[in-house]
Amino acid sequence: MSNVNLYPNFGPRVREKKLACDFNINNTLALQNTKMIKTYVAIDPRHWAKHRNIDDAADGGTISTYTWICMVIHFLQTRQPPILPNLHGIPHSLSPDNLVIHGHNTSFCDDLTKLQEFGRANRETLGGLLYAFFRKFGFEFDYRQQVISIRSGRILTRKEKGWDQGLEGQQLLCVEEPFDVQRNLGNSANEEAVKGLILEFQRAVHVILETKGNLKNVYASYRQKEDLCPNPPLYYYHDPYTYLRPFSIDNNNRKRGPLCI
């Protein structure tokens, strides 16, 4: 297979069986992606994402499962104290010289004996983390200025990343691919899709607060806009572009004003 040309992932669909899968041919970088995700022990958001119709980069114009995973990893890396480490930043025995694939440094720490107790100091509950995840991306994340980077283990600015102009400057969601760092995983989501994502995050926050933590309605299958949120607060369903700059909300689900970042 060494002489086979490199092809990106492609995903045939068997519509009668409602199956979708990705193939790649001679794409060894994708193998490192899989290995990295396997190393991270992370919350899996796919159940919620699939029920809300926001996990289909191919046909739905939203974002891929891989992008969701990167967003969750980033979220867990940036909790205080952090739950997940920055695997790329931890000293490891793998040499960048022998793990350069198509010009990309793909080395990272995968020694689980060093990593298993990393997040022990964080005592947040799973329910609290889920709420904080929705709140972060519904109200706190600055879509106009910020870039998600699990390779760096922190938020980057568009300016320092060089994504403040040109094609990437027009993308509303920026998620850095951890190996091919010039690739934006969020570029599969168009403007309407990002607006929809923000509404879904806001909806989830409101439902959790209104139902005192009952997740049944959070995971409810998407039907129509009026089904999203009964008796929405005043800010709800405003044009999400007004929330591309972050806002804070109090525990009574009241908008308090712009955050200072």
Automatic annotation (TrEMBL):
InterPro entries associated with the record: PAP_assoc (IPR002058)
Keywords associated with the record: Magnesium, Metal-binding, Transferase
The keyword Transcription regulation is assigned to this record: no
GO molecular function, one term: metal ion binding
Entry keyword annotation includes Nucleotidyltransferase: no
Gene3D superfamilies the record matches: 1.10.1410.10
GO biological process: RNA 3'-end processing
Location of the PAP-associated domain: 125-182
Signal peptide: none
Superkingdom of the source species: Eukaryota
Protein name: PAP-associated domain-containing protein
Organism expressing this protein natively: Rhizopus delemar (strain RA 99-880 / ATCC MYA-4621 / FGSC 9543 / NRRL 43880) (Mucormycosis agent)
